[in-house]
Amino acid sequence: MIVEPNGVIGILGGGQLGRMLALAAARLGLRAHVYTPDENAPAADVAHALTIGSYTDAERLEAFGEVVNVVTYEFENVPAETVDILAARRVPVAPGARALAVAQDRLIEKDFVNSIGARTAPYFPVDDLASLAEGLQKIGRPAILKTRRLGYDGKGQTTIAAADGDLARAWEEANKKAWAEIGARPAILEGFIDFTMEISVIGARGRDGSIRCYDVPRNVHEGGILRRSQVPSAAPAAATAEAAAVTTRMLTELDYVGVIGVEFFVLKDGGVLVNEFAPRVHNSGHWTIDACAVSQFEQHIRAIAGWPLGDPARHSDCVMENLIGDEAGRWRDVSVEANACIHLYGKREALPGRKMGHVTRLNPRYRAPPAK
Ligand code: AMP
C-alpha cells in the first residue's frame, strides 16, 4: 500500500503531535485530515481538513474513513472501538490494533516485553488492597503503584515509600492512601528502580519491514513530565546498543508500521530495563525536527504511507526543552537566542503542567569561522 503525493493522511487526535505530523505530511505533498473531539485542537490550524467528532461516533468515523487513504493516531488511548469501526470499513490503520492494545495496558505491555526476552522492573498485578499487600511483600519498598490504563505524564501513579521499621498499621494506612490516590482501579505495582539515567529509542518500521532508529537521547523528567532530552546521551555504548536491539525486536514482533517511542532505565551495570513504550511519535524525539534531515514526524508519515524510510542520521548535537505552562511566556527571549529553534503549539490556555511548546538548542558541529 502506497499513499502517493496529494493523498490524504487521517490523524486521530488534534494535539501537538497531530499538529507536527500534519506539518510533516504537508512538506511531503500529502494532506492531513484531523479527527478530534476538540474544537480548539492545535492540529486544526495546520490541517487540510478537520472533522470534529467523538471517537465512538460510528457515522462520523465512517465518513472520515471514506476520504482518507490511511489512518494513524497521535495518542495511545484511542478506544479499540474506534479502530474496529475503521477496520470494518477496510480503512488501513497504522500502527495496528495489536500494538495499540499492548501499549494501552501496563500489565499486558510488561508481559509482552518480558515474553520477547527484554527486561522490565519487577511487577505485580494489583486489583484490591489484598493484592497490593501481596505485591509489596514480593517486590518490597519503595515501589510505584500505577493504573493499568489511561496514565500519562506521571498521572495515575503514586510512590509507596520505604517504611521505617515494621509498622504494620502505618503500612496498611499507606497502602489504603496509595490505592485511593490512583482511583482504586486495576493497577500494577512496580519495583522502584535506582537508575543512573533514562534514555529512549525513537525507532521506525516501514511497510517493507525495514527498521531505522534515531540516536538515543538522555531524558530528564520532573514531576513525571519530560523536562528535557539531550543528544548525545553519554549513556554507555552497551546500553544504547541493547536499547536499540530491544526496540528492533519489539517492532518486528508487533509487525509494526510507523514510529515507536520506547523508554528505558539505564542501570549501574550498563544494562537496560524497558519502562514503557508509546505506539506513536514521542516527546523525546522532538529534537529530530531540527537536528536531523528527516524528523520522527516525517519518518512516521513515510512509514504509514508506504514510502521508503528516511535516513535518521543527526547533523547536530542538541538539547530539547519543553515549555510547560507559563514558561511559554518566555517566547520572546527564546526567539532571539542563536541556534534555538522555537516551536509553539498554538494552545489557547497555559494551564500548569500543560505542554505549550518546546525549544531545541542546536550546537552545530561545523561552525562558520568568525568574521575577520
Ligand atoms: P511513566 O509514566 O511510567 O513513564 O513514569 C514517569 C516517570 O516516573 C519515569 O520517566 C521515571 O522517571 C519515573 N518512574 C516510573 N516508573 C519508575 C520505576 N519503576 N522506578 C523508578 N522511577 C520510575
What labels would you give this structure?
Dna Ligase, domain 1; D-amino Acid Aminotransferase, Chain A, domain 1; binds adenosine monophosphate; 3 domains; globular; 372 residues; nine-stranded antiparallel sheet; Rossmann fold; alpha+beta
Can you walk me through this structure?
- By secondary structure, the protein is an alpha+beta fold.
- The protein has 3 domains: 8-93, Rossmann fold (3-Layer(aba) Sandwich); 122-191, ATP-grasp fold, A domain (Dna Ligase, domain 1, 2-Layer Sandwich); 195-364, D-amino Acid Aminotransferase, Chain A, domain 1.
- Helix content is 29%, strand content 27%.
- The chain contains 11 helices and 17 strands.
- It has helices at 16-27, 58-66, 80-88, 97-104, 106-115, 129-139, 168-181, 237-253, 288-291, 296-304, 331-335; strands at 8-12, 31-36, 49-52, 70-73, 123-126, 143-147, 157-160, 187-191, 197-205, 211-213, 218-222, 225-231, 258-266, 272-278, 316-324, 340-344, 355-364.
- The strands form 3 sheets. Strands 9, 10, 11, 12, 13, 14, 15, 16 and 17 form a 9-stranded antiparallel β-sheet that branches.
- A hairpin with a 5-residue loop joins strand 9 (197-205) and strand 10 (211-213).
- Helix 4 crosses helix 5.
- The longest helix is centred in the middle third of the chain and has 17 residues, at 237-253.
- The radius of gyration is 21 Å and the shape is globular.
- It starts with 7 loop residues before the first strand and ends in an 8-residue tail after the last strand.
- It binds adenosine monophosphate (AMP).
- The site of adenosine monophosphate has 13 residues, from strand 14.
